[in-house]
From TrEMBL:
InterPro entries: Glypican. This is Glypican-6. GO terms for biological process: cell migration; regulation of protein localization to membrane; regulation of signal transduction. The keyword Glycoprotein applies. GO terms for cellular component: cell surface; extracellular region; plasma membrane; side of membrane. It comes from the Eukaryota. It comes from Taenia asiatica (Asian tapeworm). Belongs to the glypican family. It is a lipid-anchor; GPI-anchor. It is found in: Cell membrane. Keywords: Cell membrane, Glycoprotein, GPI-anchor, Heparan sulfate, Lipoprotein, Membrane, Proteoglycan, Signal. Residues 268-281 have a biased composition (Polar residues). Residues 268-304 are annotated as: Disordered.
Length: 374
């Protein structure tokens, strides 16, 4: 009889632990989806606004250069998902190429010859973007790393929990404690015994760390993740003025060009030939792998302002495939207007909910499942 009780207890405990780990992993999966969706919506909104502004300012001349703008926001999205690094370099490279692109538009040329390079070098020496590149670099370094860390930490937590759920080997101490709670009341003739909360927590502390093969490191990881969740609202707060700063940078470049146009063009005309090393900007786009792919969603009105070739679904972020387990926390999307006050408040509320849930997930969920089975 004792052997049968031991076998039954071990089977039940493994099922409880497996359900605990899979449920917690699914919660992390859904939280990752929610945060990625928020990032995609935010970046897409900013890019559509900037794209519309540039199309208004430069009309058809901007069409040959719009893939450059899409590539930049796609790269930022890749940085936030953890596939590329070097954020300051991404920002500085963007402004270097922005200077090239806008200068080509102002010169009404697609060439990259010596003459164009001379004009660009002359403009660059006059700091056409003022301090805006350094401002944006500082803004992004403050706002983007916490979002990147949160997304990748939750993805790591999910994979760790799923790996732990594959092979479960409860320790002897864990099994003994579970069997005592599971069967001692029955042996004493108490059919419906109520478990004390402290008893559940004690059992959870004995049984769950072994499944993670991490021990105290898991608690440290969760504590660090909770700290990161305190910082995720920096992303919309800092990201909101990004489009304004980018627009100001372009407008200032136009002003500098207009102010010094005669001087720069005269100097470059005397030292350069107009026909050297001419290449097409459209060919340059092909070499960069561009294809007119619009990687973000957006409102229908905003999409009508975009080239038809851009009306394709997002491919930058693919949500994990497979059905959601019905017992897991649902992926509740954040509001579409991510940069408004309501969107920021919703993000903050979501972050508080995640902090509370991950902080008590293992012990509390373990006790919930224990009450179901015991």
């Amino acid at each position: 009889m004792l052997m049968g009780m031991a076998e039954a207890g071990e089977h039940e405990l493994k099922r409880i632990l497996n359900g605990l780990l899979e449920k917690t992993a699914e919660n992390f999966r859904n939280d990752t989806i929610v945060l990625k969706s928020f990032v995609t919506d935010t970046l897409g909104s900013t890019m559509e606004q900037l794209h519309s502004q540039l199309r208004t300012d430069f009309s058809y001349k901007f069409r040959a250069h719009e893939q450059f703008l899409i590539n930049f926001f796609s790269t930022i999205q890749s940085y936030l998902s953890g596939t590329v690094s070097g954020l300051p370099h991404l920002v500085s490279s963007f402004f270097d190429e922005l200077l090239w692109r806008i200068t080509q538009i102002l010169l009404n040329t697609n060439s990259t010859d010596t003459y164009t390079k001379c004009v660009i070098d002359s403009l660059k020496s006059k700091q056409p973007f003022l301090r805006i590149p350094s401002i944006i670099s500082n803004m992004t370094m403050e706002a983007f790393p916490p979002i990147r860390a949160a997304i990748n930490s939750m993805a790591f937590a999910r994979e760790t929990l799923l790996a732990a759920s594959i092979t479960i080997h409860p320790s002897h101490e864990c099994l003994a404690e579970y069997q005592r709670l599971r069967f001692c009341s029955l042996c004493a003739g108490v059919i419906n015994a109520n478990l004390c909360e402290s008893t559940c927590v004690r059992l959870a502390e004995k049984c769950t760390p072994e499944q993670l093969a991490l021990g105290t490191q898991w608690k440290k990881f969760i504590a660090a993740l909770q700290e990161i969740m305190n910082l995720v609202d920096k992303f919309p707060k800092v990201h909101r003025p990004l489009q304004m700063h980018l627009t100001d940078a372009i407008m200032n470049l136009k002003s500098v060009y207009t102010l010094h146009e005669q001087e720069i063009l005269s100097n470059c005309s005397s030292s350069s030939s107009h026909g050297e090393n001419v290449t097409s900007a459209r060919s340059d786009e092909s070499s960069r792998g561009g294809g007119g792919l619009w990687p973000f969603g957006g409102h229908r009105r905003a999409r009508r302002q975009s080239p038809p070739a851009f009306y394709r679904p997002s491919v930058a972020y693919q949500q994990p495939s497979g059905p959601l387990r019905p017992h897991a926390f649902g992926a509740r999307p954040l509001p579409t207007v991510a940069l408004g006050e309501q969107g920021i408040a919703s993000l903050q509320a979501w972050a508080r909910d995640v902090k509370h849930r991950v902080g008590s997930s293992l012990s509390v969920l373990f006790c919930i499942l224990m009450h179901v089975h015991v």
